[in-house]
UniProtKB/TrEMBL annotation:
Transmembrane segments: 17-39, 201-221
Keywords, alphabetical: Cell membrane, Membrane, Phosphoprotein, Transmembrane, Transmembrane helix
Protein name: histidine kinase
The species this protein was found in: Desulfosarcina widdelii
Pfam families: HATPase_c, HisKA, sCache_2
Membrane topology: Multi-pass membrane protein
Catalysed transformations (reactions): ATP + protein L-histidine = ADP + protein N-phospho-L-histidine
Entry EC number(s): 2.7.13.3
The organism's place on the tree of life at top rank: Bacteria
Any one annotated GO CC term: plasma membrane
InterPro entries reported for this sequence: HATPase_C_sf, HATPase_dom, His_kinase_dom, HisK_dim/P_dom, HisK_dim/P_sf, sCache_2, Sig_transdc_His_kin-like_C
Length: 507
């Protein structure tokens, strides 16, 4: 009997109401897979191209460092080249840490290849991929024409010589030694990401389509039931009822179309693409840069120094996440699909522990900048309420600024902590015997993009970010400086609401 009722219901479903809804949904799905996904694939590919370009530029900087030692007479050319090859041979990046760099010369001959040592020292001018492309000749040609550029070809998958796949590499000439440095991405990586996104979109669209069809069937079924109950009513009543159905259909269709458009355009193009991709790019590059930084100290990246840009990237990603969160609040229909990013954890923080960690992270810079460094932490400090990583970032920024202000290694830097009972606060103090800050500049020292070191590559964002973090913790950042004698900076933080005195002592 239930089957008979269902068949009777289907006979009463108006085809002209049901099909437009389905066709509209199918049109949106077609738009996703034929327009948005190809656009996302192109953006992913562009993003990966930019990543390998930045990686090659960074590796190129290490070559320049070895060449500089040669010019200064610290190393012979043979020793400098050997150390450079050894360094680059060991560099890996990527999700599995199997992506690599290689070096050939302008002949071309293979200088170094971590996965094809059998080619090293050999003439590779006739070496061709399975499609017949002389890829190393192409690398030489683009370096001669432009100095750097992209080359596409087929190559083995990482360290698997049996698997040949399409690859795009960025090559950059190193003129002092006549070398060409390169690294590449596998096109299959992008295809795999797109496939994963496609599977998720297919699942989401299937549920949306199912919900829309079910809702449409229920709406039409209700109308069919009303029509059946009023089958003996006058012709005019039936006409008005039909008009009511049409109006309800248009309202429902408009709502559904608007919701689907927002669900696709906003989260897919803004959140699901940009923020996660940037995060993954940064996470994949960060271990290499950190390792290089710990081994070689600060180095220039994008017009500033690495120790500064390293701490500026997370706030940028946080800003992207905040924007996504605002979009989520505006577009209410995204609640079923959007996921909140966890907010920064706020807890009781041991300031001495944070300062020791920050000093450890900047030890290489400190040792290069001064022979007179002192760490003076007050024992048994009460905890402050905040985010340990942010407070560590404040300390690192202040230490870096202090080291950069020193004219020579005979000047000192002192980092300390203390407790002010009258103000019920804990402070971090960084003092240097550097060049000092002019009085007229002190009023603007924390303004964004204001810097007294623009000629040395300063961006004017380090202290602005530091001041913002301190203020976000309810604290203040104070400066006391005398030109020619030095500067004392204090980051002052309020105590936690229920401070507990630590038992251990800090050396």
């Amino acid at each position: 009997m239930a089957t008979a009722r269902f068949q009777n219901l289907l006979r009463h479903i108006p085809f002209r109401i049901f099909m437009p809804v389905v066709m509209t949904v199918l049109l949106f799905i077609l738009t996703i897979f034929q327009l948005i996904l190809p656009m996302m694939q192109e953006r992913l590919m562009d993003g990966k191209r930019e990543v390998i370009r930045e990686l090659v530029v960074s590796a190129w900087s290490s070559l320049e460092g070895y060449a500089r030692q040669e010019r200064q007479g610290l190393l012979s050319r043979e020793a400098a080249q050997q150390q450079a090859k050894t360094h680059l041979r060991g560099l890996r990046y990527g999700p599995n840490f199997k992506d690599y760099f290689w070096i050939n010369d302008m002949h071309p001959r293979m200088i170094m290849h971590p996965y094809r040592p059998d080619l090293e020292g050999k003439d590779i001018s006739t070496f061709a991929d399975p499609a017949g492309k002389r890829l190393f000749i192409a690398c030489v040609e683009i370096v001669r024409a432009k100095g750097a550029g992209y080359v596409d070809y087929q190559w083995q998958w990482m360290d698997d010589p049996t698997r040949i796949v399409p690859k795009i590499s960025y090559v950059m000439g190193f003129e002092p030694w006549g070398w060409i440095l390169g690294s590449g991405i596998y096109v299959e990586d992008v295809h795999a990401q797109i496939s994963a996104i496609t599977r998720k979109l297919t699942l989401v669209c299937s549920w949306i389509l199912f919900a829309i069809i079910l809702l449409s069937v229920l709406i039409v079924a209700h109308g069919a039931k009303v029509t059946h109950e009023k089958k003996q009513a006058e012709e005019m009543a039936l006409l008005k009822q039909e008009q009511l159905f049409q109006a309800a259909k248009m309202v429902s269709l408009g709502t559904l179309v608007s919701g689907v458009a927002h669900e696709i355009n906003n989260p897919i193009t803004s959140v699901m693409l940009n923020a996660p991709n940037l995060g993954r790019m940064w996470e994949s590059v960060l271990p290499i840069l950190d390792r290089y930084h710990m081994q070689n100290g600060d180095f220039p990246v994008g017009g500033t120094v690495y120790s500064r840009i390293r701490d500026r990237i997370p706030p940028m990603l946080t800003s992207i996440t905040d924007d996504a969160r605002r979009v989520r609040d505006i577009v209410k229909d995204l609640k079923d699909f959007a996921r909140d990013n966890p907010s920064e954890s706020m807890e009781d923080v041991d300031v001495n522990e944070v300062v020791h960690k920050a000093v450890g992270l900047t030890a290489n810079l400190i040792n290069k900048s001064t022979r007179h460094f002192k760490l003076d932490c007050q024992v048994d400090l009460p905890p402050v309420y905040g985010n340990a990583q942010r407070i560590e970032q404040v300390t690192i920024n202040l230490v870096v600024n202090a080291c950069q202000a020193l004219p020579d290694a005979e000047r000192s830097v002192t980092v300390g902590t203390g407790f002010e009972a009258d103000r019920n606060c804990v402070f971090i103090a960084v003092c240097d015997e550097g060049v000092g800050i002019p009085a007229e500049a002190l009023m603007q020292i924390t303004d964004p993009f204001f810097t007294t070191r623009r000629e040395q590559g300063g961006t004017g964002l380090g202290l602005a970010i530091t001041d913002r973090i301190v203020r976000d913790h309810g604290g203040t950042l104070t400066f006391d400086s005398t030109p020619g004698k030095g500067t004392r900076v204090r980051a002052i933080f309020p105590l936690a609401k229920e401070p507990q005195q630590p038992n251990r002592q800090v050396d």
